Structures
1.
Amino acid sequence: MPNVVACYKWVMDEADVKIASDLSVDTSRAKMKISDYDRNAIQAGVEAAAALGGSLIGLSYGDDRVGKSVKDALSRGLDELVWVNDSDAGTADSARSAAVLAAAVGEMSDVALVICADGSSDQFSRQTAPRMGALMGWPVVTAVSGVSFEDGKLVAERQADAGIEVVEVALPAVIAVLPEAAEAPIPGLRQIMQASKKPSREISAAELAGAQAPLASVVEERGYAMDRKNVQWDAADEGWLDNLTEALRKEGVL
């Protein structure tokens, strides 16, 4: 029976991150959550597993704090959960994260599809899914807005600059989905209660072969300030639209 793996990331809630006047970043009061985009990826996994007649396995990589995500993740339709604990996950780049996740998938059986969000709500590097596919030698489809299965193959609609592309790939495969690929419902009381009965397993990153060291490291974090020109026009004034259009043209917007 083919299994589907849905990857998710436990991140800080960006609403709780504060930027000081000197552009320093204060995360001391930030609560944690499943990345907003990963909630859609999990739901896409729920639908894919149902279509394939298989089970849905959740997979996450992070430090000890990921343990607090287990009940929330399982309440969203996962059949089981594996999370990789790594005390150095906070400094891991996309290369390290992808290598750990790929190694964890490699220890699972009968995996037909790995689903990631197109990007995480904290970094949005959009590298994890392509790197996983490269490491595993599986085809990768990114920017996926819709998925179906025909004759044992995956058919994906993906958003491209020129419009919508329809891509067909053989399974097993890795896809990176956009939020519109699957609307993420809010778990109800029944789903939350059932989550405590589902299996979850913690493994150490040190146990995984092929979990490479990071290729890049973050040396500084700071906020940014938008420099607004604050040019205003009154819609009641004649010619305001022409003035606005000309200002946008000078800025290179038009």
Note: The radius of gyration is 21 Å.
2.
Amino acid sequence: MKNKYTSTAIAMYINYFVHGMGAIILAQNMTYLTEQLHTDKAGVSYIISALGIGRLIVLYISGVLSDKFGRKPFIYLGMITYIIFFAGILLSPNVTVAFIFALLAGVANSFLDAGTYPALMECYPKATGTASVMIKAFISAGQFTLPIVIGFLVSNGLYFGYSFIFCIIIFVLNGIFLIKRVFPVANEVKATESVEEIKSEDEMKHKPNFWIEGISLIIIGFTATATFLVVQVWLPQYGKEVAGMIDTASLKLISYYSLGSISAVVVTSVLVKNLIKPVRFVVIYPLISLVTLMVLWMFPTPTTCMIGAFSIGFSAAGGVLQLALAAMSDLFPTSKGKITGMVYTASSIASFAVPAITGIISKTSMSNIILFDAGVTALGIVLGIIVNIRYNIMMKSN
């Protein structure tokens, strides 16, 4: 039987297609923004850091309020706030004003997360991993599409701001479409429902312990984000300076990265549906990322950079964060908005702390940035192992 929330889910996924563009739109338009804002690339980078700060400010509380007031209001808040960001950047006369609007983009992201992730889990209670990781597919699709849009504008000598207006138009149309869409009742899962939302309480040896697997999954929210963020920001520069790639070739590494991410979503969505539990991927994928990072560090060639970009896109950016959240919701099913806020707060901390840390490291060596990323990823693997051990203890053997 067809799921009555399918059209609702489609509308939510479209929002993340636009979010994928919004996440990179400042960096993609850096040249034009330096002119408009009378600043340099460092100034635009400073503005970009505001996205992580804005996201952190309201994410936890918005998750808690989402549990109380429902998902739809927060999705609309996210869409409206994002529209203000896109329009505000185009009207900003200087770095200070643009920074404020960039903060709003982070706030908008938090609102969308707090409403969308719990809503999707409630729309598809028996496929929370697949529903969550599909968000990453739409984010990646947006990040793949925006450079094409900007390339079209540049090649035709058109106003760079049309890329921002393009995002606004999609949000407006999707907002109209969303008006009559129905949502499931928030937190319909009862406290007696357990891991994977299909096991009964008497099938569990022990109840989940928030201070062990809960905290571990929250920290994985940080390590998973850090792993792909370092590559997203620094791999083109690493390819150019360390691997000896030319400018155009090094910039294309992000295209390989996006393709890897999209591929992972397709593969993972199939695997988590019937074959492998989401919790297993919080070890498997970071392990692939760690091996890839070490190969990149030891053998910095154009070929390894291209393969590495795809591999990191697949294993780190392809949904580890979403799968960690799905595992968290399986273990603690009664407060999905709250746990979304917790996991994504850790992710937000990574989104502004990691660029600052790696910026300092870059003054020593680009290779040291890759080593730093490997260290963070290794921490994520250890935490993932802890979570899986606890998961196995909680569930009886077949």
Note: The longest helix spans residues 210-241.
3.
Amino acid sequence: MSPPMSGVKDLMKVSGLPQLFFWSMLGRLNVSALPIALSLMLVRWSGSYVVVGLVGCALTLGQAAAGPLRGRAADRGSTGRLLLITGVGYTAGLALIVALAARAPASGWPVVVAVALVTGLSAVPVSQISRAVWPRIVGSELTPALYTAEATASEVVTTTGPLLASLVIAVAGPYWAVGVTALLTLVSTLVFAAALRRVGLGGEPLPQRVERLAQRSLLAEGPFVRVVVISMLLTAAIFAVNLSVVAWTQNIGRPALAGVLTACWTAGSLAGGFALSTFARGLPRALRVAGMAAGMAALAVLLPPVLGTVPLWLIVVVLFLGGTALAPTLAATYEQVAEASPEDRRAEAFGWVATATAGGGALSAALTGVLLDAYGPALPVAAGAALVAAALVLTVYGRTPSAEPVEEVTA
């Protein structure tokens, strides 16, 4: 057992972790970069936003359906082999979509939808594999700090992806943007797999772990289901706020502000994640979730129809302050997932979480649209705050016991 460590500096000292962390983040860049590039490419090809929506839906459904299966495959076999197969499959699927959009007539859109579904099934499980192995790499002492660092870095990736796609689109067009995204995914996945092997985590699992996988479904475990529901509620709330902010800027005739306001929320999340990992690592999970709920509630009060006109600077301040709880809250959910699942089934566990959050995001997007049309932006944001409040209740009254002791890998 390594000596007690704390904070970002101590994470940097763990052998092989900085490189592994970097490539795991780069391997997720496609999640935020692809939507804008793929949407622009498809609308230029088909001239129809219906086609864009169908292809995007098929891609998301494939990703959501395969999440637990990919996680279980990672738990049962070689993560390196799984990353290679999915990386090649996902890249080939995107390349085929580009080729069809470049050469096939627009009437061939059903084929593109089918290819998108298969491509989604091949989505690379970098995020769930990395979240599953973090506790084994750093041990229980540093696991909370590492999950906080991941949640914070994920905000950077979420912001950087669209910027990268927009840059490539401006220089070479949307077809190239999709191609660059696919290539970047393949390269980062392969390097991530190699980095896993260097720390001793890219090969076959121990035989006894494969035998233990005959256990009943994780969804039969109450503590785990509770954490999955918490993750789904939080994701739905985040979607509600993002869409409502965009709608508000459209309503006031200043759509360009949407990116600025979203960036303020992200900046607050980055600040909150840095502060938590550096100064306040012991902050209770319930307080983090409560802070997120309070931030959303405060924002709801400032938006129409509750208030008709408010200074822009006040919206910016509330978004930033509310955002400070975002990364710490997400980090808390990662910790809860790790605690609620056996070590040899954590990749599967994070796969179920990915499926639940994808479903929560899709449902939230649909309901938020209805609420925005009927009542304006205040109500969907308030609904988001209510969802986080429900997550708070589950957090407070459903504490999750640790599934088993954390093993530590010394590199």
Note: The CA atoms of residues 99 and 175 lie 9 Å apart.
